[in-house]
Amino acid sequence: AQSVSQHNHHVILSEAASLELGCNYSYGGTVNLFWYVQYPGQHLQLLLKYFSGDPLVKGIKGFEAEFIKSKFSFNLRKPSVQWSDTAEYFCAVISSNTGKLIFGQGTTLQVKP
Amino acid sequence: DSGVTQTPKHLITATGQRVTLRCSPRSGDLSVYWYQQSLDQGLQFLIQYYNGEERAKGNILERFSAQQFPDLHSELNLSSLELGDSALYFCASSTSSGTDTQYFGPGTRLTVL
């Protein structure tokens, strides 16, 4: 079955620490990949996306992600987190085979000031 | 602000009742998607409409139905409500029916008592 897996459910970091959130998917065919962020009490916002081309994509607020096709991974990174990055992060994948956007379970990031 | 609007923001109702959630997509978007977000199930795709027609179905219960009107707004109808239907319901929209980026609305929080 098609699935998206996020390795970390809850991450706690201090400000200025580096962040990497893992995301793996199991899909056949062409995929488009997304990271969304949900700040407390708010809706999902697009952080970044990968459709094709350079596998290292840069998004808003200093986030970036790398698509590694051979590992079916799309990990999210940020060199130095801020308290305002406290939120829930969702990896999502849409396959050309199904056309359905499937989300990972989400990772709650807590940044301590 | 994604440009997707949803009403109402909050809805409190009793078991057995029926409610209607409304979504207006971003200007120019033809596809509307509905998602349910709950603590135990995470973010689940329910259904997609494209230009007035049902395009894809996910984990949508038979008690739930949706439609998209000629002006492209969509409504999600939930009937015979159960306690377990309490969740956040998000609407998203995209320009086409394929694998485009989906932009999410602020959600409707449904509480069934």
Fold and architecture overview:
The complex is a heterodimer of chains A (113) and B (113). By secondary structure, chain A is an all-beta fold. Helix content of chain A is 0%, strand content 56%. Chain A has no helices and 12 strands. In chain A, the strands form 3 sheets. In chain A, strands 2, 5, 6, 10, 11 and 12 form a 6-stranded mixed sheet that branches. In chain A, strands 3-9-8-7 form a 4-stranded antiparallel sheet, with no helix packed on it. In chain A, strands 1-4 form a two-stranded antiparallel sheet. Chain A starts with a strand and ends with a strand. The relative contact order of chain A is 0.34. Chain B has 113 residues and is mainly β. Chain B has no helices and 11 strands. In chain B, strands 2, 4, 5, 6, 9, 10 and 11 form a 7-stranded mixed sheet that branches. A 4-stranded antiparallel sheet of chain B has the order 1-3-8-7, with no helix packed on it. The mean pLDDT of chain B is 94. The A-B interface holds A 30, 32, 34, 36, 42-46, 49, 51, 90, 94-96, 98-106 and B 2, 33, 42-43, 45, 48, 55-56, 58, 90, 92, 97-99, 101-107.
Layout of secondary structure:
The complex is a heterodimer of chains A (about 110) and B (about 110).
Chain A: E1 3-6, E2 10-14, E3 19-21, E4 23-26, E5 31-38, E6 44-50, E7 56-58, E8 64-68, E9 73-78, E10 87-95, E11 101-103, E12 107-112
Parallel strand pairs in A: 2-12
Antiparallel strand pairs in A: 1-4, 3-9, 5-6, 5-10, 7-8, 8-9, 10-11, 10-12
Chain B: E1 5-7, E2 10-13, E3 19-24, E4 31-38, E5 42-50, E6 53-57, E7 64-68, E8 74-78, E9 87-94, E10 103-104, E11 108-112
Parallel strand pairs in B: 2-11
Antiparallel strand pairs in B: 1-3, 3-8, 4-5, 4-9, 5-6, 7-8, 9-10, 9-11
